[in-house]
Amino acid sequence: MVLDEKYDVIVVGGGHAGCEASYCAAKMGANVLLVTMNMQTIGQMSCNPAMGGVAKGQIVREIDALGGGSAVITDKSMIQFRMLNKSKGPAMWSPRVQSDRMLFAQYWRELLEETKGLNMFQDMVTGLLVSDGTVSGVKTALGLTFEAQTVVLTSGTFMNGLIHVGDQNFGGGRAGERASKGITEELIALGFEAGRMKTGTPPRIDGRTIDFKTMEEQKGDENPGQFSFLGESALKNQRSCWITHTSQEVHDTLKKGFDRSPLFNGSIRGTGPRYCPSIEDKIDRFSEKNSHQIFVEPEGWNTVEVYVNGFSTSLPVEIQYEALHKVKGFEQAKFFRPGYAIEYDYFPPTQLKSTLETKLVAGLYFAGQINGTTGYEEAACQGLMAGVNAVLSVRGEQPFVLGRNDAYIGVLIDDLITKGTEEPYRMFTSRAEYRLLLRQDNADLRLTSLGYQIGLAGKDRKDLLDYKENLIIKGRESLDNSLSLKEVNTVLEAKSERIAKEKTKTKKLIARPNISIMDFHKEYSKEPWWQNDVLEQLEIEIKYGGYIAREKENVAKMKRLDDKEIPENFDYYKVKGLSFEGRDKLSAIRPATIAQAGRISGISQSDIHVLLVYMGR
Asked: Cα–chain-centroid distance for residue 492?
């Protein structure tokens, strides 16, 4: 039975990728259907109740700058804000928010419901409608058929999900929710390659049974910031997190269950995240350490539930219980639910184009953990890009692709489609070669105009951007002038700096390591450009100007290779001089440009030189 009219875009799954994909597609004017197995768990924070962090915070800012919803939802639901790495350079500054889990999901549901053109339906998608290599809709467990011009799969950990607790395992996509069946087998039949990955989650504890007095308190920033450039939600009160540690006694207790651990006894076949291992994995891999840090995180304003970050485990419940009781502060702790591991299907992302459309089936897009990534932020940005490109495809317009020099989002997608991943992919600042350009503070300057051009970022965002850019220009002009010698020396003496003997441009003074733009508060504070976000931009420009200019030069060099496109059906086996490995890998990945070809693992510089010579001919 075919239900309803034909949609422009169908999004399968209501997690972070699905929320962004459906919201952004509808916001661009498309007729969208979000199909999810449980409408009560839309926007669910399945693991830790937090958004952002190192590199992840930059991604959330980029989503916001483009016009997505994650940052706005995060600001409305946050209970603590911290800017990480402030002791380092601005390329490393990363915002992180502790969220109210229930409010986060509630606000996402409300945003989706109020978005024009966005429809929702509760059912399990069990298959796809594909004809002549093109998707045309989905089939559901109720025997219904929904037709669409494009489909975005955001299945999270649900496809053939298998939950492990000790020597027990059972089907499920998340605790208390069933797994999704049918799609994996159909995609394999269509020619897709599939694999298995694993992730896990720690126990949830009744906060009333925790002794916080024995732990180290971790407060939020004194002057909390926000994720969204719209600046509509200010955090006035904050909840603290807490830090404690495991001990050798805790480790010895955990080891008693290793013979029943699905991680060690072969029950789990999927690959887990290297950078977020379970506690048993940490003990096994880092046996020389007798202590590991545990972060104790509240789940919301009005709940006593607590998340034990750093104690992810799939050991038997009784072992979890005994070991956690030996952690300082948890001696009397009562469990709300134990930790568990989950295995699920994913599809190696080298099977995707830069738009996240599959190479095998036209109109079919993958986003989120189906592509082998981990983390809410990584999933959300993929959902945004897949939703946007699905709409542009329907309209017959040029695709929207971000480069490695444009955004962390561009780095993430290029890494996935070019290098693939054999373990859950997590974003780090070290993955971005142009991270000084891709800072969290300038995401709006980099991306909002692009979001506005494709119809995602609204006029309110564009007006704010124009206003900010105008103030930055005025600030540059002011700081390019010289103050009186008396004014300059007053500032220098206060900072114990050697006094000046002649007038000097203010920007040259700010370039000194010990001088800040805030030291000139008295001289400039009445100027219209004296605003925190503008001051931050001006100071970074001045202090890091040389490094920024050098990165821009490197970007220009890379773009010359990015401009050299490779035809989609190029026959690499015709090119004499290419290595055998080069021919095989280039044929499998099918890079769009010479620059992308150079980033494929196993492709040598001599292979690239041969390609350049061949294409030059």
From this structure: 43
The separation between the first and the last C-alpha atoms of the chain, rounded to the nearest angstrom, is: 56
Q: What CATH class does 459-549 carry?
A: mainly alpha
Say what percent of the chain tops pLDDT 70: 99
Return the structure tokens found at 191: 């020619």
* Tokens matching residue 420: 């693939």
Beta strands 118-122 and 32-36 are parallel
Rounded Cα gap, residues 134 and 149, in angstroms: 9
Residues 100 and 49: beta-carbon distance below 8 Å: yes
CB atoms within 10 A of CB 450: 17
pTM metric for this prediction: 0.94
Q: Could you state, in order of their start, the residue ranges of all structural domains in the chain?
A: 204-340, 459-549, 563-616
SS (H, E, C) 4-23: CCCEEEEEECCCHHHHHHHH
Separation CA 478–CA 145 (nearest Å): 63
Class for domain 563-616, per CATH? mainly alpha
Tokens representing residue 7 in the block: 């949609």
Q: How far apart are CA 17 and CA 377, in angstroms?
A: 9
* Whole-angstrom distance, CA of residue 392 vs CA of residue 354: 14
617 — pLDDT class (breaks 50, 70, 90): low
Q: Please tell me the predicted confidence (pLDDT) of residue 604.
A: 84
Q: How far apart are CA 425 and CA 420, in angstroms?
A: 9
pLDDT one-digit tens code per residue, 178-198: 988 899 999 999 999 999 999
For the domain made up of 204-340, the CATH class stated in words is mainly beta
Average pLDDT over every residue of 267-275: 72
Q: 94-136, pLDDT tens digit by residue?
A: 999 999 999 999 999 999 999 999 999 999 999 999 999 999 9
Largest Cα–Cα distance in the chain?
Answer: 85
